[in-house]
């Protein structure tokens, strides 16, 4: 574990500039990130329209911005490495700042009042589903000998809300950036086909729109993919899917607190003290979670003081800003990526994620049938 810490900086740690890096190099690095983010945004917004009417139309519509951002970041990484300037620009790859800002903005889109008043069953489903899938993933990862930090990222990602949960967990357990990139890649790889498979299975099983929406919202690990799959089924399914997914998103903070405590007090006990004190817990606790919760509370209150149209427009702008920050974060992850660390991971993380996804599908279907049969969004 100590060897890994020396070799790779953990998520949450300050970036270490490469040889020769300085303020000018850091500034140029930021400019590179902004340029690649602009390319990502352009592709995200225009590729579906450019490929409309072609055989690739559905594929283009399903691809989300993290795919473009990570791939473009990796390509930029290869170019900068080949030209020998990557280390001099690395001070500008501010992954942690972009990630934490994006997650705080995510909190503004989570209206706790809507969750509590409109869909009580979603809360029950989220708690049971997250607990079951998280513990199964953690157990299986341990059986297969995965690193504890990678286990935490995979468990959070598959049980809560994909990339956002993996990011939050990475800050809590000080995971390496390569582990975060690996987890994000698995989320995307499994989420994309789910957009089409789950609506088809819902039709085959004859599920009501509300049950189908609850199943989709509890399974697919990114909010955008949940929205796409729910829309395929219909408006009622989309409404329930969104509520279920938002409910799971709201539990990120609770899981993060638990991971922070577990890693601070058990996984990383200091040699001179078996149990670190409260100060160590506070040092390790990802402070951005407080911003995430505060943004949610403020948004929930503020939406009650303005018209629905004003609230929707403002939250839409905040969400757009959040997407920009997450694009910057994923581009930076690609730029910081080290292939050697992924080679060490092997097949086991894929097997863990696949098995956990299968459990998630089955448990979520059972909960959706139990809690949402006869439920109506009207």
Would you mind describing this structure in some detail?
The protein has 378 residues and is an all-alpha fold. It is built from 20 helices and no strands. It has helices spanning 2-7, 23-50, 57-62, 65-83, 86-89, 95-107, 112-118, 120-143, 148-161, 163-173, 177-205, 209-219, 223-233, 235-250, 252-267, 278-284, 288-303, 308-336, 339-345, 348-372. The chain is globular and about 60 Å long. Mean pLDDT is 78; it is low at 1-9, 12-20 and 270-274.
Q: What is the overall number of helices?
A: 20
Which oligomeric state applies?
single chain
Provide the number of structural domains. 1
Strand content: under 5%
Sheet of most strands: none
- The global form is globular
Number of strands: 0
Q: Mean pLDDT, rounded to whole units?
A: 78
What is the helix content?
over 70%
- The stretches of 5 or more residues where confidence is low (pLDDT under 50) are 1-9, 12-20, 270-274
Class from secondary-structure proportions:
mainly alpha
Provide a brief overview of the structure.
79% of the residues lie in helices and 0% in strands.
């Amino acid at each position: 574990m100590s060897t890994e810490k020396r070799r790779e900086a953990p998520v949450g740690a300050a970036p270490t500039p490469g040889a020769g890096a300085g303020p000018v190099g850091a500034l140029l690095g930021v400019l590179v990130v902004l340029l690649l983010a602009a390319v990502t945004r352009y592709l995200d917004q225009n590729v579906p329209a450019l490929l409309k009417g072609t055989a690739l139309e559905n594929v283009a519509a399903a691809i989300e911005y993290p795919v473009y951002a990570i791939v473009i970041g990796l390509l930029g990484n290869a170019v900068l490495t080949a030209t020998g300037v990557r280390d001099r620009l690395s001070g500008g790859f501010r992954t942690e700042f972009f990630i934490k800002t994006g997650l705080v903005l995510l909190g503004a889109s989570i209206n706790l009042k809507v969750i509590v008043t409109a869909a009580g069953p979603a809360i029950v489903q989220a708690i049971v589903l997250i607990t079951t899938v998280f513990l199964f993933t953690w157990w299986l990862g341990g059986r297969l000998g995965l690193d504890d930090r990678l286990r935490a990222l995979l468990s959070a990602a598959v049980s809560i809300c994909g990339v956002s949960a993996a990011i939050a967990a990475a800050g809590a357990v000080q995971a390496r950036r390569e582990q975060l990139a690996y987890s994000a890649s698995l989320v995307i790889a499994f989420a994309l086909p789910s957009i089409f498979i789950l609506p088809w299975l819902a039709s085959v099983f004859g599920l009501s729109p509300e049950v189908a929406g609850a199943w989709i919202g509890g399974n697919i690990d990114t909010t955008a993919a949940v929205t796409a799959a729910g829309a395929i089924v219909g408006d009622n399914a989309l409404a329930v899917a969104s509520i279920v997914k938002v409910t799971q998103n709201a539990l990120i903070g609770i899981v993060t607190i638990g991971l922070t405590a577990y890693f601070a007090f058990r996984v990383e006990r200091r040699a001179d003290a078996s149990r670190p004190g409260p100060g160590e817990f506070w040092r390790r606790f990802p402070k951005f979670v407080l911003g995430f919760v505060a943004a949610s509370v403020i948004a929930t209150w503020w939406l009650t003081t303005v018209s629905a149209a004003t609230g929707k427009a403002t939250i839409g702008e905040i969400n757009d800003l959040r997407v920009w920050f997450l694009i910057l974060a994923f581009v930076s992850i690609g730029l910081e990526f080290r292939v050697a660390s992924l080679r060490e991971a092997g097949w086991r993380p894929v097997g863990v994620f696949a098995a956990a996804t299968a459990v998630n599908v089955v448990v979520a279907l059972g909960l959706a049938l139990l809690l949402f049969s006869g439920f109506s969004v009207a």
